[in-house]
Amino acid sequence: MKNNLLSFLLFLACATATQLLSQRVAAQTTAAASTGMTLDQLKAIKAIKIANLDKDTYLKSGAFILDRYEERPAYVFNYTDGITRKIYLYKIFSAADTKDLGLLAVYQNGKTNEVKPFVIPGASAERTAWDAYIDDLKYVGEKEPGLMSTLTFVLSREMAGLLEGGGGKTEEGGGKKKEEYNFCFAPDAPVTLADGSAKAISAITTGDVVMGYNAQTRSFAPTRVTNVDTHQSNSFALTAVWLAPANEITANGRGTLVAPIQVEATANHPVLTDAGRKALGDVRAGELLFRYENGKTIPYRVVRAEQAVRSVKTVYNLTTEAGAYLVGETVVLDK
C-alpha cells in the first residue's frame, strides 16, 4: 500500500511539475504558430536514437533539432542500490522553422545502460500528445525503480530555477531570451581539406576528410566529417570578425596595409579564442583567434567585429571526429 501511494504521489508530482515547466518555458519564448506538438511528432521524436548522450548536445534528426537544455550536463543520481542514474534534458525544435515544440528527458540506467526517453510536449501541444506523455509516466516510469523520483526532481528543480528568474540570459522584464538554435556557416564558407586545399562547406559530405584541430596539443591532423547539418529559412543573419597577424606588422613589402581576413558565421557558432571556447558574436576586438599556416597554429588578433553583416537563406554546420575544423584556415569548433 505504501509503495502504491508513493508511486502515485511521484506520478502526480512529475505530471504537475512538467505542466508548470512547459507553461513557463512557453511563456518565455515567442510562439511561431498557434499549434504545438502533435502525437505523430511525439512518436517520431521518441524514436530518435542519440549515439552519445554526453557528447551529442546538439543534433538534427529528420524534421527535428535537439539542443541540450540550457547547456546543462546530465543530472546524476547515486542511489544506495549502487546504480548510477542520469537524466539528460534537450529542447526540441522543428528543423524547418526552429519552432519550439517541447522537451526531451532521457533517463539512463548506469548498470544496464538502458535508456528511456520521455517526450514532454509544449503547453500548446495537442491533447493526444499530452495523453501519450502521461501514459509513458504511468506505464514506463513506474516499472523502473528510481526513474520517477529522478525525473520528478529534475523537472521540479528546473521549474524552481525558472520561477526564480534563473536558467540563462534574460530580456528586459525578466523573460528568458529566445536563442537562435542554428550554429552554422554560409554556403560559400571555405573548409580547409586535409591536403590544404579548400572546398565550399555546401559541397562537403559525410565521410569527407578535412583538416582538424586538437585544442589540447595545438596540433593539426586530418579528421573525418561525421555529420553535415543544413538549415533553411527566410533569413539567417551572419556575424563577422576581421583578423590580422598578432605578431607581425600588417604591411606588405610595398608599405601598404594588408587587408584583414574576414571570418563569418551565425553569432552563436563557437570558435577558439585565447580565452577558450566562445560564440563568434561574443568575440570582441583585441581577442585572439587561431589560424593554420604552414602546419602551425598562428595567433591572429581581432581588429574589428560586426553583427549582422549580411544574411543568407541556407546555412551549414559540420560535426567532425576531432571536434574542430578550419573555415578559411581559421579554427572553428563543432557545436
TrEMBL record:
Source species, domain of life: Bacteria
Keyword Lipid metabolism assigned: no
InterPro entries in the record: Hint_dom_sf, Intein_N
Keywords noted in UniProt: Signal
Signal peptide feature range: 1-27
Name of the protein described by the UniProt record: Hint domain-containing protein
Species, as recorded: Spirosoma utsteinense
